[in-house]
Amino acid sequence: MADTLEFNEIYQEVKGSMNDGRLRLSRQGVIFKNSKTGKVDNIQASELAEGVWRRVALGHGLKLLTKNGHVYKYDGFRESEFDKLSDFFKAHYCLELAEKDLCVKGWNWGTVRFGGQLLSFDIGEQPVFEIPLSNVSQCTTGKNEVTLEFHQNDDAEVSLMEVRFYVPPTQEDGVDPVEAFAQNVLSKADVIQATGDAICIFRELQCLTPRGRYDIRIYPTFLHLHGKTFDYKIPYTTVLRLFLLPHKDQRQMFFVISLDPPIKQGQTRYHFLILLFSKDEDISLTLNMNEEEVEKRFEGRLTKNMSGSLYEMVSRVMKALVNRKITVPGNFQGHSGAQCITCSYKASSGLLYPLERGFIYVHKPPVHIRFDEISFVNFARGTTTTRSFDFEIETKQGTQYTFSSIEREEYGKLFDFVNAKKLNIKNRGLKEGMKQSYDEYADSDEDQHDAYLERMKEEGKIREENANDSSDGSGEETDESFNPGEEDDDVAEEFDSNASASSSSGDGDSDRDDKKPAKKAKIVKDRKPRKKQPESKKGKDPNAPKRPMSAYMLWLNASREKIKSDHPGISITDLSKKAGELWKAMSKEKKEEWDRKAEDARRDYEKAMKEYSVGSKADSHRGERSKKKKKKQEKQLKGKGDKKGATSKSSSSKSPAKGMSDSFKSKEFVSSDESSSAESKKEDSEDEGAASPPPSSEDSASGSD
């Protein structure tokens, strides 16, 4: 048989509420750990007196009774687990796990039995219901009637607040059954009565939650806060933990008392009681007990007369009465040397203390998060400023806490602490919701060197230089592509097409020829480069020289492997950030060395760019000439067809009366036109190095006419 049994999703009934957690049974005893508060109930095997198995609302339950009268109830078991539990109890605890069913007859009369901390209402031998007397807050009596009032349960939607018992009169003399019933209840109930004198009183202590100044009266079983407006009575059984935390200014101390259930004021619940002390304030304290009682009760932890700092006296007395250790910050030290980190939670600023087993935030609202309930933590980039970051914690229950506005200098210390505690660090920077904050952070980082921004600036400068060079080069290219012969040819063709309608003299035509080509040449010169500029930007020439890198990028390429070896597993983002820090901290002399290398690279690039631009211009000129040649040939063929049509039309429209004069003018005009066009064609063919097509037989016949 196994030495231990473990059960998850088990519910413990405590003061009317069902708290889930984990139950573990071992040879030494029974241990239950509350998932919500982390509180551990430990029952030694030697203290167990009885074990009862029964059917309850949540399946099956286990009720354990101890020899000192305490009762523990655990629900959520399956019916099939009874045999396993029964064998375990027999083997390790020497107890029979008895099966007892609850009575469901529905009767409302029966017998009340008091056993330890439990009031049981039975019908015959079967219990109908049981009331833990620790749930009772008040007990009042009337004629043949006893009324029990209960503590309100904040976690339950519906709470039982009152039960009344009718107690019939008896014939026995001298015994009042109503008073006997009430005394049995009050002896075990959680009823706070300020009877007797307080052990000690602390006057006018500054309390942050609940806010105000309170007199704290220390009683043997509870703590009494007496203020000008409100009073609070806090049983020591409700105290979970004690914390003593130094303030960041090193002149004040926080004393934090964690409570479950919390103290209430209207609808407000205070899970933490926070006191603020000055380190300079001293006190002399005398306990309201004689020395023998002090020695017997506190076993040397307290003495009748004590003196010291006020916060030391309060914490020392509370530790002795509550019997719990005081938690102090561990070995964590922030950037400023303090044991805490300044941050904001929700709308208020406060202090976050990394402890040995959790985090605690003070003071508004106070938050305590244990390491064992943390699912993961995350370091997020601040959305409003570049000088801070956010620290996010998500629990296994899905609750998320975000501590914002943490100084950037605290990042390294906090990251090392979290890493040493082996907490799961989740990088949420790749998620869709974090992309925007990441980009804003990268763009707005003014103090730290930004590699991407530096590279963009360098490329912008190079683009401006290239734009200036290309504007100069495009002007030269346009001037070179200007061909007067081509423009003369265009004007001659335009003049030929309007030959029959023209009545101006040769001199006037020649003057018009001089003006029109200038305008047309200007249009050609301006428009052609504009059409071809976007085409050149469409694709990047792979043969073009690569732009030179900045001094920082040259240094980063040379130092990247060293940074990776010094920081194994570093991400690309963190590597850029680390490189920026190293570059920023580099001396001026070392930076000048890389500046010289960048300047040499820039000169080499400019030289290579000039050679590349000369070669590309020559290629573009050759392409332009071939295109212009083809276009010119098409225009010549089109012009000849137009001239043929115009000649045939003019010959058919000649009249016999004016034949001699008209034929003379036409012959002179056509022959001069052919001679001029032939001369221009000859010049063009000599300029371009290509022969133009010979004139057709029809053209020569019209010329002879």
TrEMBL record:
SMART domains: HMG (SM00398), Rtt106 (SM01287). Residues 532-544, 634-645 have a biased composition (Basic and acidic residues). Keywords: Chromosome, DNA damage, DNA repair, DNA replication, DNA-binding, Nucleus, RNA-binding, Transcription, Transcription regulation. Residues 545-613 bind DNA. Residues 458-551, 609-705 are annotated as: Disordered. GO terms for biological process: DNA repair; DNA replication; regulation of chromatin organization. Residues 474-496 have a biased composition (Acidic residues). Residues 497-507, 647-663 have a biased composition (Low complexity). It is found in: Nucleus, Nucleolus; Nucleus; Chromosome. Its main location: nucleus. Belongs to the SSRP1 family. This is FACT complex subunit SSRP1.
